[in-house]
Structures are given as structure tokens and as C-alpha cells.
Write a structure and sequence with these properties.
The protein is built from 18 helices and 16 strands. The chain is an alpha+beta fold. The chain has a single domain, classed as Orthogonal Bundle (Cytochrome p450). A 6-stranded mixed β-sheet has the order 2-3-4-12-9-5, with helices on both faces. Strands 1-11-10 form a 3-stranded mixed β-sheet, with no helix packed on it. The protein is globular. The chain binds protoporphyrin IX containing FE. Protoporphyrin IX containing FE binds next to helix 13, helix 14 and helix 18.
């Protein structure tokens, strides 16, 4: 017989836990040693590898990522109406299964590999001016711009439109802002512009197919079923939301880790074949997405506990990634770490597992290989400033470094 969750005596945590990411990680990890479950001011959080996997793989827990607006008390009807539009990021059940089945082939490792030479060119172009100086602030000069040309190339948007994409990505990503109410107009304008642009691109690709994601998505078909134009627009927006800020922040966190662990940077330089492992270890050690959110779509009995319908649950992937029962010596940052057969959690798990994981892996691997060659002796050259922690995507805001120039 399961115990109702509100009858348990659980450790209590503030959902936002202040703004310092390191303090937050410490509190979460200490709590995880006492209990797999903790109470937060807006629900509960699971803290161990097994229970995080358990919740993410259980289809009764539905994505709450579309509820950010409600959680912040937003009442603007036009905005809420837009958020109700089906998106792969928060659709559930048959609607999600259908979307995922149609789009998955376009996001295969093979499709991502197609872009590797382009990724190398982008990294090299960004490093050229840095390499001439041997120093720089690499969030602005390298990490922030890196994903935009790649997403554009993926979609088949020409170079002259990169600037517009960069602006739309910045504006539409304000949906993760802690001050959403002030950002609604900017967000909706960016959404309208992306959608209009996408409609135009769809028209072009329908008459003239190419080797790109949009063409693949237009052609995607299963048993006569296809994506509608509105669904294609939604997918483009999802790719911009899911695929830009995540990658740039993950690259930034990686470079902080490498600057603080110079011997690991040297190993990578000498053994570039370790890049895939290095990406997994960086994401285990410091994932740009530290957690995600779910709600109980029905009464759920899990691990001997009854969670009533509507219960809000967060899953602390960043804490599960330090679970000693899965990752021995979790505090050791070691890119030669043998794979343990269980994945790091920073791409999520279950039906919402990151659709762009192959692409993100390829982007990070290519960046690691080129940067370790061209920026040896990477070292911090000042204080690393971080973006506000919030609950969304996290990474450095400023990362001044020096390295050996001229390579
Ligand atoms: C290092 C970079 C990335 C990280 C850390 C990351 C992380 C995640 C996580 C944790 C989820 C699951 C969210 C949840 O369960 O609520 C997710 C989903 C998703 N990601 Fe990524 N992501 C990255 C890169 C990308 C890229 C490059 C793309 C697209 C090109 C992308 C597109 C998506 C989409 C569309 C979903 C929703 C999938 C679904 O709900 O079925 N992501 N990502």
C-alpha cells in the first residue's frame, strides 16, 4: 500500500535555491544522500539516478515545460493561446508519438554527421581572430555565435539570414526568462517573424527540395501521414528553442571545466579520438540543463509513494549525474572515464529524450577537437561570470581566457 506523499516527512528545498549554481548543486547532492525525494515550494523533486530515470521513463508523468507561463501567473490571453499550440517539447500520448515518429529520422546520427565539415569551418572561422590574439572573452566571441550558422545550415537558411536567426533565437528564448511578463511582446514578435520566414522557406523547399532538415521534414511520411504546415513551423521553432542556447551554454561550461583542468585539455589535444567521451563527461559533470519538470497526469504510485494527480515534480539530472552507485568517484572530472553502460542524464530520458542529441554531440565533439588543437594551454584570465541560475538553461555569461596564440 503506497503512502500518500504528503504524509511523508521529507527534506524541504526551495525550488529556485538561490542564484549560486555551486551552492545549489551542493545542497541538492547532500540532500540526495539522505533521500531520493525532497519537497519543494511548488511540488517535489527526485534526486537519485534511478528515480530520475524512473520518472522520466514513466508516461504517466507529463511534461510541464509548457506550464512556465502559468507558474509565473501570466494571464495575457494571446500568449497563453499560443502556448497551447501543440509543440513536440510538451505534447504527450499519441500526439507526441506521432510527431516523434515522423521527425526522428531527420535527426539521426547520420543527418548530424552530414554537418560535421560545416561545423569545423564555423569553429575555425570563430577561432581565427582569437588565435591571432591568444586571448579573448570566449562566451561572446565563440560560444554564443557557434550554434546559429549550424542551425541555419541544418534548416537550409542562407548565410545572409544568420543575423535575423540570431536575433529571433535570443528573443524567443526569453520564454525561459524569470521575468516573463515583461518579455511577452518581444517573444510574440519573434515567433511571428520565425513563422513567416519558415512558411516562405517551406514554399521554396516544396518546389525545390535540397539536402537539409526542412526538406527531410517536408518529405517525412509514415503510412500516408505527413506533418502539416503548422507542424513544420512548430518544429522549426522547437529546433531554435532546443538547439541554440543549450549548445552554446554547454560549450561554455565545457571550456570552464577544461580551463580549470589543464591536464584534461592536454589529454584531449593529444588524443582527439577521446572527444566523444569528453562530451559525455563534460555533460555529466556540468550539464547546461540541470533538470526538467513534470506533473502527474493521474494518481501515480511510484516507489511506494502515492502522488496525487496534478503533483508537480522536478527531476534533478545534474544531481543524478553524481550518483555514486552509477558513476564511481563522481567528483573526478576524467575524460578517459570508461563508459558505465548507463548514460549521463543531461539529455533527459524517456519519450522526451533530446531530439537533437546526435546533432549536439557532433557540434560539441567537433568544437572540442578543433579548439584543443588551436587553443593549447587554455587558462582563465579573470573571473568567470555566470548567467542567472533560474530553472532553465545555465552557462557562463563571461569567460576571459588566454592560450598559446598563432595556431
Ligand atoms: C548540449 C546541448 C543540448 C542539451 C543539454 C539538451 C537537453 C535537452 C533535454 C534535457 C531535453 C528533455 C527535456 C524534457 O524532458 O523535458 C531536450 C529535449 C529536446 N531537445 Fe535538446 N538539448 C541540447 C541540444 C539540442 C539540439 C541541438 C536540438 C535541435 C536541433 C535540440 C532539440 C530538442 C527538442 C526538439 C527536444 C524535445 C523533444 C521531445 O520532447 O520529444 N536539443 N533537450
Amino acid at each position: 500500500m503506497a503512502t500518500p506523499v504528503d504524509e511523508l516527512s521529507l527534506p524541504k528545498l526551495d525550488f529556485f535555491l538561490g542564484t549560486n549554481r555551486e551552492d545549489r548543486r551542493k545542497v541538492l547532492r547532500t540532500t540526495a544522500k539522505q533521500s531520493w525525494l525532497a519537497q519543494t515550494d511548488i511540488g517535489y523533486t527526485v534526486l537519485t539516478y534511478e528515480t530520475i530515470m524512473g520518472v522520466l521513463r514513466d508516461k504517466r508523468w507529463h511534461s510541464a515545460t509548457g506550464l512556465g507561463a502559468q507558474l509565473q501567473g501570466i494571464t495575457n490571453p494571446e500568449y497563453l493561446n499560443r502556448r497551447r499550440r501543440v509543440s513536440i517539447l510538451n505534447a504527450e500520448g499519441d500526439v507526441h508519438v506521432r510527431l516523434r515518429r515522423l521527425v526522428a529520422p531527420a535527426f539521426s546520427p547520420r543527418s548530424a554527421d552530414r554537418l560535421r565539415p560545416f561545423m569545423r569551418d564555423v569553429v575555425n572561422e570563430l577561432v581565427d581572430p582569437l588565435s591571432a590574439k591568444g586571448s579573448g572573452e570566449i562566451v561572446q566571441e565563440l560560444c554564443e555565435p557557434y550554434p546559429i550558422p549550424i542551425i541555419c545550415e541544418l534548416l537550409g537558411a542562407p548565410k545572409e539570414d544568420w543575423q535575423s536567426f540570431s536575433k529571433w533565437a535570443t528573443d524567443v528564448l526569453r520564454i525561459f526568462s524569470e521575468n516573463l511578463a515583461n518579455e511577452l511582446d518581444v517573444i510574440m514578435k519573434a515567433q511571428d517573424e520565425i513563422n513567416a520566414y519558415t512558411r516562405n522557406l517551406i514554399e521554396q523547399r516544396r518546389s525545390e527540395p535540397r539536402e537539409d532538415l526542412l526538406t527531410d521534414l517536408i518529405a517525412a511520411e509514415e503510412e500516408g501521414d505527413r506533418l502539416t504546415s503548422e507542424e513544420l513551423e512548430m518544429m522549426v521553432e522547437a529546433v531554435i528553442i532546443g538547439g541554440t542556447d543549450t549548445t552554446r551554454n554547454q560549450l561554455g561550461l565545457a571550456l570552464v571545466l577544461f580551463a580549470n583542468n589543464p591536464e584534461q585539455w592536454s589529454i584531449l589535444r593529444e588524443r582527439p579520438e577521446l572527444a566523444p567521451r569528453a562530451v559525455e563527461e563534460v555533460m555529466r559533470y556540468h550539464g547546461a540543463v540541470g533538470g526538467t519538470i513534470r506533473f502527474a497526469s493521474e494518481d501515480i504510485e511510484y516507489n511506494g509513494v502515492l502522488f496525487p494527480k496534478g503533483t508537480f515534480m522536478s527531476t534533478s539530472m545534474g544531481t543524478g549525474n553524481f550518483d555514486e552507485s552509477v558513476f564511481p568517484q563522481p567528483d573526478l572530472f576524467d575524460i578517459t572515464r570508461e563508459p558505465v553502460g548507463q548514460p549521463q542524464l543531461s539529455f533527459g530520458a524517456g519519450i522526451h529524450y533530446c531530439l537533437g542529441a546526435s546533432l549536439a554531440r557532433a557540434e560539441l565533439q567537433e568544437a572540442f577537437i578543433t579548439l584543443s588543437q588551436r587553443m593549447p594551454n587554455l587558462a582563465l584570465n579573470g573571473t568567470v561570470e555566470y548567467k542567472p541560475t533560474g530553472v532553465g538553461i545555465f552557462g557562463p555569461a563571461s569567460l576571459p581566457v588566454t592560450f598559446t596564440k598563432g595556431l
